[in-house]
Amino acid sequence: MSTFSGLNAASTALWAAQRGLDVTGQNIANVNTAGYSRQRVDQTAMGGTAVPAIHSVSTAVDGGVDADSVRRVRDALLEARGHLETSKTARLAAESAALSGVEDAFREPGDSGIQSMLADVWSGFSELANSPKTLASRSQVLERLDTLADGIRTTRAALDQQWDQTRDGLAALVTEVNTSAASVAELNVAIRQATLSGLPTNELADRRDALVVKLSEAVGATAVPGSDGVVDVAIGGTSVVAGDKSIAVRLSGTSTPDDVRDAPPHLETVPGGAALRVGGTAAGQLNALTTIVPAYRDQIDAFARSIATTMNTAHAAGFDSTGVRGGTLFDDGRGGTDITAANLNLRLTDPSNFAASGTDPATIGNVASSDGKNADLMFKLSLDTSGLDATYRKLVASLGVQSSVATRDLEVQQVVSAQVDAARESVSGVNLDEEMTNMLSFQHAYNAAARMVSAIDEALDTLINRTGVVGR
């Protein structure tokens, strides 16, 4: 073995140790950098016979070490699992937030809720039954009925506002998705060029992976590795990033909650208009737009119609203070019967026209105003086990159960997601204790390689300057 070749081995050892120290320093510097994957130097022994054969006589073992390759430490299976769990967590969070918003709209339990307003109405009927001639009792009943109608309109308005805000949020999310997809395509180009040129791509790949995670959280995107370091990104099986090309996504469908059944909101590709099976936050928001909020809008509308029908029927069975049969209590604000929670209106405004009496004045000489039987019958509507109170309690109980289940599912999913993230972090995250150990290891390797250079230098000095001088 040539002594000079030993210097080559020692120099590569010095370079490898220096390379290891540099990479270790990079890891330590980025210990708190979000999305950073720890890096490792791949050291490969050099030398040996290039093509082993029977008659090979080379005994070279002095090739040294190759430390040019620096790789990111990542687990592809954990990364894919992380994308899946991140998407599911985001979807459940969006659905849970939507149900919480619906609960806020109903304001139950509380003094400002519809249940409390209904209780005030029943109490007003009871007081009017006991003092049907009192103008204050009649005025109080109308005031409480008007408050109830206003409370129902407020709930419906809150649901409509929540629907509009959710759609606006989804539209903003789509814009972010398009920006992220375009950035992934740009990074694919940069990584491919760097790979073909033999340049490092680890930091670029970290940036791209962070964007893929963002897309996974937003729309449930998945990544498929391609050649030359690029990745393709798909949403529900539809490719939105293929190499250096990206496809835009748009939000289509109705922009008003009244037309949800005819033209439900959805995401589709541009161009082509192919509907996407999305996940993540977008899936949760679409569920809120097409199912959660519309379902409770329908229920509050049905409840408003039930109030109008029940109250109008009961009021029409009595007589007012002048002996006239009771008229319409509630209408749609235009004198019609096309009633929803948005237009429920108290039509009766004159307290003297409230039909508190249950006796026909023609049979007793027009003294019906002294009879509060109809007001009492209207109070007894509260005792009906299948009446307005029961209907509303069922609605609120159903909402509470659904919201509670959504919250519990989210909590369980967050635990699962945290475990997967911890597993990913244990593989790709920077551990300072491990890096310190690596730093000491490379430091000792560097010292040993330097000592080897010194030893070879002394041997060469002896060989060159002292060989052949005996006897001079």
Average pLDDT metric:
88
Using only CA atoms, what is the Rg? 39 Å
| Overall 3D shape | rod-shaped
**Tell me about the biggest sheet?**
4 strands, antiparallel
Helical stretch count?
9
Strand residue percentage: 5-15%
**Strand segment count:** 10
Question: Ends: how far apart?
Answer: 30 Å
The H-and-E topology, N to C, reads as HEEHHHHEEEEEEHEEHHH
The computed structural class is: alpha+beta
Uncertain runs are none
Overall tally of domains: 2
The helical percent reads 55-70%
Domain Flagellar basal-body/hook protein C-terminal: 427-465
Subcellular location: Bacterial flagellum; Secreted
InterPro entries: Flag_bb_rod_N, Flg_bb/hook_C_dom, FlgK, FlgK_helical
Domain Flagellar basal body rod protein N-terminal: 7-36
How would you summarize the topology of this molecule?
Blueprint: H1 3-29, E1 39-45, E2 65-72, H2 76-106, H3 114-130, H4 135-197, H5 202-219, E3 221-225, E4 231-235, E5 238-242, E6 245-246, E7 248-252, E8 266-270, H6 280-316, E9 330-331, E10 345-346, H7 373-379, H8 388-428, H9 432-465
Antiparallel strand pairs: 1-2, 3-4, 4-5, 5-6, 7-8, 9-10
Helix pairs in contact: 1-9, 2-4, 2-5, 2-6, 2-8, 3-4, 3-7, 4-5, 4-6, 5-6, 6-8
